[in-house]
Design a protein that fits this description.
Elements lengths: L1 H16 L11 E6 L3 H5 L1 H9 L3 E6 L8 E2 L2 E2 L3 E5 L12 H9 L3 E5 L6 H9 L2 E3 L6 E4 L15 E3 L1 E2 L3 H4 L8 E3 L4 E3 L6 E6 L4 E4 L17 E7 L5 E5 L7 H5 L16 H12 L5 E11 L9 E2 L3 E11 L4 E3 L6 E6 L1 E7 L1 E2 L4 E7 L5 E9 L7 E10 L14 H23 L2
Parallel strand pairs: 1-2, 1-5, 5-6, 6-16, 18-26
Antiparallel strand pairs: 3-4, 7-12, 8-14, 9-11, 10-13, 13-15, 15-16, 17-19, 19-20, 19-24, 21-22, 21-25, 23-24, 25-26
Keywords: Endoplasmic reticulum, Membrane, Signal, Transmembrane, Transmembrane helix
Main location: endoplasmic reticulum
Pathway: Protein modification; protein glycosylation
């Protein structure tokens, strides 16, 4: 029995070590909730692309009464994929509140909806800053930007190539072929500055029910329609919301595509490349930063002091690295700044870098004493935000640290001594002159 326990313990150690950690930020354990196990085979190419990058996928039916996100206060998974657009109620201990708490704890989420999206899926999306069209029968229609097919159909199969211009989110390799999309439209909550459109509809698109006649203007029109959106929360958790589950399918991955009005026909759609690159960002394989070795000291010294004096010359440095999916690489940028802050920044300096991840600068402590902070607040599109703060007091000169004769006071010294000399001369003249 003891040998069995030891064997199980040694077997679990590698699994636990491969989970989400600050040293290896890429998600490893992913729970995939499905409407039907048939989705596992119909969307197998997408799942295989995740597994080939080292992810451990756990497939469950969304209404399985035994599913749970955490046990004994510890989360069992690093990320959650919801490929269950029609689910009205999750099984086990999972509900909308549990999923939002999962994200609030720093974990990542992918939500794929569709024309039959349930109120539960819509509620989760709304809480994340995305609003699906309130018309339950409405889908995205585009009579100019549709995908050309053998049968014209109702132009609900969209070929979109309006991508976000961000290499960190979509990778540096250009996506040549349009992405096939068939599903519902959503808009971004204007009060939520954390939501970004990754794939937008064309200016000629609109959201409507293709089976009924339009009696009033659609509520969502043109480029305001988002097809795929991402959110990076303030705790650096990442979320992807798509209005189409079918865009993840093998059929769309392998389908040829020609956008209406374009003479170019592509043998393969851009879905696989697009979703692979976006998933790399969502699961922190790209755009994840960390800051280490924050140091400050007086010029010419190496030890960090407990207090500075006004007008001291100091040096500040920090090392910033980016996770490449396998290793930490030096992060190189020219827009990292440090503030020397007390109520407001007294000093704001752009940090220089040595192209090896080290950022540094030097400056003079202002002639103001109090409790200051070294602050680095770094927010760049697609990257995890960095918020560094180190508190340090600044004192005035002691009474025996002032210069004995202050150069700026020489005119006053001269005035005092000339007054004394003048009084002596006046007294001598007054006393001895008849």
């Amino acid at each position: 029995m003891a040998k069995l326990i030891i064997f199980l313990f040694l077997t679990l150690i590698p699994i636990l070590c491969n989970s989400f950690t600050p040293d290896k930020p890429s998600d490893r354990r992913i729970l995939v909730l499905l409407d039907d196990f048939a989705i596992k085979s119909s969307h197998s190419l997408y799942f295989k692309s995740l597994q080939s990058r080292g992810f451990d996928l756990d497939f469950k039916l969304a209404d399985d009464p035994k599913i749970a996100l955490q046990r004994y206060g510890q989360y069992l998974y690093d990320a959650l994929v919801l490929f269950s657009p029609t689910i009205e109620r999750f099984g086990g201990s999972i509900d909308a509140a549990a999923i939002l708490a999962f994200v609030d704890s720093g974990h990542d989420l992918i939500v794929a909806a569709g024309s039959n999206a349930s109120d539960l899926i819509r509620e989760i999306a709304t809480e994340c800053g995305v609003d699906f069209d309130e018309d339950y029968g409405a889908v995205v229609v585009d009579h100019a930007g549709y995908a050309v097919s053998a049968t014209e159909g109702d132009h609900t199969l969209i070929a979109s190539d309006d991508f976000i211009k961000s290499d960190v989110i979509l990778g540096s390799k250009k996506i040549e072929a349009p992405v096939l999309f068939q599903g519902i439209a959503h808009s971004l909550n204007p009060s939520n500055s954390l939501v970004l459109k990754v794939l937008s509809a064309s200016p000629t698109a609109f959201s409507a029910n293709p089976k009924s006649k339009l009696t009033s203007p659609p509520s969502l029109l043109g480029s305001s329609i988002s097809l795929v959106s991402v959110i990076q929360a303030r705790n650096n958790a990442r979320i992807l919301i798509s209005g189409s589950l079918s865009m993840f399918s093998n059929r769309f991955f392998n389908s040829g595509v020609q956008k209406a009005g374009s003479p170019t026909k592509h043998d393969k759609s851009g879905n696989e490349q697009f979703l692979t690159e976006v998933s790399k960002w969502v699961f922190h394989e790209r755009g994840h930063l960390k800051a280490v070795n924050v140091q400050h000291h007086k010029v010419g010294e190496t030890n960090e002091p407990s207090i500075y004096r006004i007008n001291d010359d100091l040096e500040y440095s920090v090392e910033i690295y980016e996770w490449s999916g396998t290793t930490w690489e030096p992060y190189v940028a020219d827009d990292v700044q440090v503030q020397f802050y007390m109520m407001s920044p007294y000093v704001l300096k752009t940090l220089s870098n040595d192209n090896k991840g080290r950022y540094f600068t030097s400056f003079k402590v202002p002639d103001v004493y109090g409790v200051f902070q070294f602050k680095v607040e770094y927010d760049r599109l697609g990257y995890t935000s960095l918020s560094l703060a180190k508190q340090i007091p600044v004192r005035p000169f002691k009474h025996n640290e002032y210069e004995r004769f202050i150069p700026a006071a020489y005119p006053y010294y001269g005035a005092a001594f000339s007054m004394m000399a003048g009084f002596f001369v006046f007294s001598a003249v007054h006393l001895y002159n008849k």
